[in-house]
Amino acid sequence: MTFFTRLKRIFLGEPLSTQMAINELIPKWQALAVLSSDALSSVAYATEEILIPLAAFSALAVNWSIPIAVSIFSLLVILTVSYRQTIDAYPNGGGAYIVSKNNLGIQAGLIAGASLLIDYVLTVAVSTAAGVENLVSAFPILMNHKEILGTGIIFLIMLLNLRGVKESASIFTIPTYLFIFSFVLLIGIGLWKLAVGEAVPLAKGVVQEYPVIPFFLILRAFSSGCSALTGIEAISNGIPLFKSPAQTNAKITLTWMSFILGSLFLGITLLAHFYGVVPREGETSVSQLAHLVLGQGWIYYLVQGSTALILILAANTSYVDFPRLSSLLAKDRFLPRQLASLGDRLVFSNGILGLSLSAILLIVLFKGETHHLIPLYAVGVFLSFTLSQVGMVVHHLREKEARWATALGINLIGALTTCGVLIVIAVTKFLMGAWMVVLLIPLLVLLFNRIHLHYKTVGKELSLVGQSPFVKLEPIQHTVVVPVSSIHRGVIDALRYALSISQDVRACYVEIDSARTAHIQTEWQKWAHEIPFVVLRSPYRSVIAPLLKYLDDVEQTTHRDMITVIIPEFVPSKWRHQVLHNQTAFLIRTALLFKKGKVVTSVRYHLHDT
Amino acid sequence: MTFFTRLKRIFLGEPLSTQMAINELIPKWQALAVLSSDALSSVAYATEEILIPLAAFSALAVNWSIPIAVSIFSLLVILTVSYRQTIDAYPNGGGAYIVSKNNLGIQAGLIAGASLLIDYVLTVAVSTAAGVENLVSAFPILMNHKEILGTGIIFLIMLLNLRGVKESASIFTIPTYLFIFSFVLLIGIGLWKLAVGEAVPLAKGVVQEYPVIPFFLILRAFSSGCSALTGIEAISNGIPLFKSPAQTNAKITLTWMSFILGSLFLGITLLAHFYGVVPREGETSVSQLAHLVLGQGWIYYLVQGSTALILILAANTSYVDFPRLSSLLAKDRFLPRQLASLGDRLVFSNGILGLSLSAILLIVLFKGETHHLIPLYAVGVFLSFTLSQVGMVVHHLREKEARWATALGINLIGALTTCGVLIVIAVTKFLMGAWMVVLLIPLLVLLFNRIHLHYKTVGKELSLVGQSPFVKLEPIQHTVVVPVSSIHRGVIDALRYALSISQDVRACYVEIDSARTAHIQTEWQKWAHEIPFVVLRSPYRSVIAPLLKYLDDVEQTTHRDMITVIIPEFVPSKWRHQVLHNQTAFLIRTALLFKKGKVVTSVRYHLHDT
Are residues A551 and A487 in the same domain? Predict the structure, then answer.
């Protein structure tokens, strides 16, 4: 194994054998774990997000959290039924990009694509921030280090992904079911204590009345709560993972996931209400609730730990989704071509770095506060939901498959609802940060289109269409120039290579110190007399300028198609020695980068110095 | 002019026509201005540095500043007389590196070189910090932004130097003489006011007595004050600048400079004493003195402005000295070879960046306080003084030129004095920061030696000595492999180039999407049927791995000397489009970087897309 391969293996791991991270087909209960960490984890912060604007208004206003949670639950039901239609229509996985592109045209697809890419970055930031807040709630000593902790966790996820995690379903299974188990336990014990009247005094004094509050405030709390719904589209993307009959199994799993998500969300919101949890700095509502219900025992730490864990898993899902969507966009020539192939993981290193650094930037800018990130989050999510649902409506109108009218009705309701929610979110959260996303999406779409246009223009320019095939490919005529600074084994190798590729080989020497010229000329006669040796004067002591001038002269006098410049370079055995060599080669290469009719070739001499 | 040249011109300026920044010979009065900004500018902080430790001990202790200043003045006289000997002995400029190397051996030279390089960084940091402090004294509103101001100024000097300032003597003349003029004015008015009894009341109550204070404290104040002497070696380095008779003129100028420096330094120290200036946070002693003597009028701002200006000029001198010394070290193979040539300014960009960033780091670490930087400064200066003087002693003993015994005596006194001062500085300032320099110098010397050893080993390995000259240089035999991903004009160009450099050309195609293979094979038959076309399967969807394997196969079956890999690359007309192309080429190049027997050649296709 070469040095480089070894380096790559150490840092990036063994190559993965297929495009998907998980390639065996898995049963429903495992698929649920793999595909729902993003969706389920939002239970950890959605309730608190509803409470924050209400509590800021008045103590009684928080009572509105119950009807708001119920309406979000209804929205979940609508989305679930709608996405079951998508599963029926797109057996290979119908992400918002594909569904929008196929049914609404490429620009709609690009809008969905842009929303999703922004979403993936926010998923990393929001999930990590929420995970850290739950850790800090359990260990208040970490209070002032939220940004550092968040940055550290993202950095770790980044390294794991650069290294390449060989993901298997079991990595997801335990944390996901542990999370479900611990939350069911929390809700169960909480309700039982309420029932037997063992609950804390606070719970008894709750007045169930709905004070008059501004409608805008209800909408804002509702918008925030909609963050509970992020990630529910994952199962409709992941159909190829399921065992046969894949579509049926996916639909069943989707229903199960929604049922679990809805129950946990409603359960936590209800308990928070009855136990009188009010959002406060330094402790998440989930942690407050767990403290009130479970005290400070091990079950409390189980709840907090499994919450933090599933949130980190949720952040990690973006590292699978981001390359996958980039690859789809690149295949359609809307992102750099190289991203299309998922094979050389090295290619995605830049993507992984970009995703991580953007998320870290968000964490730092928003001081690691989930609450400040949420306004940015839901816009992209609901924009992609809406486009996807509208796409399904068009799909039904166009394809008219069996029972299309019912399906049309369902997706129409889905489209109208998600569109309504999108408008509510964009309006109520606009000044709180949603404007950034509203601004960024068209900019991204513009970028996609510019990239596409570039590839199209280049494609046309390179095309052979219309040309008649050659009888024979004609070799070109070229002159070879070898710049040398002294005569040694590396130069001899370069000269031998030069002689093998052209009849017309010349060496040139830039004279900086005239005292050395006579010596090198004598040496030249001894070792390489058959190759013409030109001495170039350098009034300004530059190595590059005289060489460029000489190449121009050669070009004008020989009238050949091309000049090949051959540079002798060294490969030191120790990497750090690299800085001691080849800088002139680098300068020559850079100087010729944009010149036409020049080919620069390095003939390397491998040093075996110890 | 090509894009790249234009870019270089914009950012780095026109090439300078010789190695020295200023190449016309200049009269003494201009040479004084050019070569003395570093030395004279130290008047701005040296007095304050003497006062700080004394004032911290007791109010009366500051009286000791007068005898300390007088002893520093004596030291200045000794150094001046000593350096006049160096001017006699080294008509082409005798820097500490050259004098030490020639007389004491290469390791002594390297110690001097290391001290000087550290010095240059500190000159930038100290001068900038002092300049900023004088600006802040005049404009107290800037008080809390010292680090930012310092960083900004260094950044500006850096940009100017990367850009390439076409320096002329006149740039230095005005600020230097303005500085001398304003300080003479300050001292003159100050003394006159004292004489006529117009001085502020404070000046009248000064008691002239010398309280008993620890001897160590006196030594420490003396060490700090020695910062006044930094930069006085500049004239002995700059002899080639002077009009004939250069050595005589240089000696006269050195004497004049020392006289001015000494007078200003003594004058300021005396006045500070009589006007009762005590160092305090937020205003430099010079500014306090100028306020007391001149009030708040325009002369005050003239003093402060010219002080800040000459300090910034002093910082800039390092940007000439640093590359010059690096070049000397590189010519002797103790620094990367490329630094030897001063011709392509691009080469020094890294040096300029390094110098600037180190200075900025110092400014930030030491919070822009001159006082905290001074302990690091003087060690390197006096180490190079000492080595240079000892070198001169050896020189006289060896050469025995005319009147060598007198000269020997002078330099012996110089050597003993500077060595004594060096020890005093190293001991009294060790814990205050001098330890860093004491540690860094041997590390640098070690690095120089390691670099030298590497070049020596490589030189031996590459040497042709002992080989008998070839009758004829034999061309090599190679196979050419052209990896292609589709067939277009760029590929056709690459294939034509390939046919021109070898009889054995093969193309290969890595199959990622099997659906495309048949299509590309048909195309190949149409356009390039005479070149064998190999389809490589890629089970892991990697482009690189199958290619590497194929190259190994070719190597084993053909038994040729080499394989040349020709990659078709694109040069987009817009620089930013670069990211949309050539990533595969980059991956291939990187993967083959450390492989023996491979030459990678890019044949570029210039896109003229709009």
Answer: yes
